[in-house]
Amino acid sequence: MFPLAKYYITTAIDYVNGNPHLGHAYEKIGADVIARFKRLAGYDAFFLTGTDEHSLNVARQAEAEGLSTQEFCDIMSGRFRNAWDKLNISYDRFIRTTDQDHVATVQDIVRRANERGYIYRGTYSGYYCVSCERFIEKGDLIDGKCPFHPSREPEWVEETNYFFALSEFQEPLLRHIQEHPDFILPAARRNEVVNRIKEGLQDVSVSRSTLTWGVPFPEEIDDSQVVYVWFDALINYLTGAGYTPGTDEFGKWWPADLHYIGKDITWFHCVIWPATLMAAGVPLPETIFGHGFVTFKGAKMSKSEGIVVDPLKVVDSLGADPLRYYLMKVVPHGQDGDFSFEGLAEAYNADLANDLGNLVNRTTAMIKKYFKGQVPSPTGVYGPLDEELKAVEESVAQRAHEMMEELDPTSALSEIWRLITAANKYIEDSAPWVLAREGKRERLATVMLNLVEAIAKGTIMLSPFIPYSSQRIWDILGLQGKPEDIRWDGNLEISSLLPGICVTQTGPLFPRLDMESSDFTKGEFHLAELAKEKKKEGKPGQAGLSAKSPQDSGKGDKKVADLISIDDFAKLDLRVAEVITAERVEGTDKLVRLEIDLGCEKRQIVAGIAQFYKPEELVGKHIVVVANLEPARIRGVESKGMLLAGSTEDRSELAIITVDRPLPKGAKVR
Ligand code: ME8
Question: Would the CB of 13 count as within 6 Å of ligand 1?
Answer without folding.
Answer: yes
